[in-house]
Amino acid sequence: MKLWKHTLLALVTTSAMCTVQAKPVPLDKVAVIVNEGVVLQSDIDVSLKTLKANAKKSGQQLPEQSILIDQVTEKLIVDTIQQQEAERIGVRIDDNRLNEAIADIAKNNNQTIDELSASIAEEGLSYSEFREQIRKEIAASEARNALVRRRINILPAEVDNLASILATETNATVQYKIGHIQLRVDDGDNKAAIEAEAKELVAKLNNGADFSTMAYTYSKGPKALQGGDWGWMRKEEMPTIFADQINLQNKGSIIGPFRSGVGFHILKIEDVKGLETVAVTEVKARHILIKPTVILSDEGVQKDLNEIIRRIKSGETTFGEMAQQYSQDPGSAAQDGELGYQTSDLYVPEFKHQVDTLPTGQISEPFKTVHGWHIVEVMDRREVDRTDSALKNKAYRILFNRKFNEEASAWLQEIRASAFVEIVEENEQE
Q1: Where are the alpha helices (DSSP H) in 172-239?
Q2: What pTM, to 2 d.p., does this model score?
C-alpha cells in the first residue's frame, strides 16, 4: 500500500506547480483495450501531467515525450489488469476503509480533509473521482497481496538458518543473568532416577517454585551456596555447556534438564540485557465461512449468515453448532469454528480488521474476503511475550519480504503476458 500512498501524495502536493486551467477538451477516446476494460486517452494525459509536474518539482530530467508515453501507457495497462484481478476475486473496499485511507493521506500531507479536497480540485480532479481512484488502488494492492501470498512457501529450515545468522550477530552484545542447578551423577548412581528427579525439579520451577531455594536445596554445582547465581555473562564468557543451550531465550525461561559428563543441569534466564523484547496481542476468534456459488449469490449468502446470527443471539442454537453445520472452512468447522490464539497479521486484511476492532463477545456483521463471506466473533485477547522468538519472527519477515517481491514481479509479468492488450490507433477511432 505504500506505493499508492506515495503516488497519491505526490499528486496532491504539486498543486502550486501544475494547476490545470479549465479549457475545452475533445471527446475522450479509448487508447488501449485491456481484456474487457479500457485505458482512456484522458488517463494517459493526466498521468503525463502529474509525472512532469513531479519531475519539475524535484528537478528530475525526463526522457523524450514518446518514451514517457510508452512508459505511462504500460503502467496504466498493468494497473488496469490488477484492478480486474481485484474484481475477479471479489475484493471490495467499503466507505469506512476508504475514509480511513484518505484521512491518512491528508495527515501525511499535513492537511485537513477540506484542504486535501481543495488541492485536488486545483489539479482538475473532482473529489469523487479522487475517492474512486484511491478505492481502485487499494483494491488492486490487496488483490496483489492476496494472490502473491499464495505463491510463497517458506520452509522452517530457512527460518532457522537465517535466525541462527542473526543470533550470531546479536549475541555479541546480549548479556544473560544465569541461575544454575546441577544434579551430580557419580559412578554407580542410578542415572534414570537422577534424570527423573531433574525433570521433577523443572516441573516445580515451571509451576512457580523459587529457583534459588531449589538451588540451595538440591544443587551440587559450584554456585550452589549462592543460590545457583552465576551473575551477568555474555555467551562467550559462559561455560560451553551453558552457551550451547542458550539461544536468545527471554527472561524467566527454564532450560533443561540437559546432560554433561558430570550430571544433569537446569538453567534459568533470570534477566536479559540488550535483547529486543517483543510483546504481541494474540486473538482467540471463531468464524463461519460460506462461499457464493452459481446458485447462491452474495446477497443469498449474506441473508443466510444474518439468519445464523439471529438464531445464535436468540439462544436457539450456538455458534459452535452453526459452524459445524454450515461453515465451509473444514479445519475450523470441526472445532466449532474456533481458530485458536493467533496474531491478527496472519489473516487477510478484511478479516484482520474485524478481529482487531470487534469487542470481545460480539459477532460481526457478514463481510467478504477473497475466501468468501464470514461472520466472526472475538472470544478473547491476551498479551504474550515473544522475546524468545523475536529473531525467528525477524528472519521470517526478511524471507517473506524477499520472496514477496520476487513473486510479485513474476506474478505481474504472468498476468501481463496472459492479458489481451490492443493499442487503438488514431485512425481506428475516426
Answers
A1: 191-206, 211-218
A2: 0.47
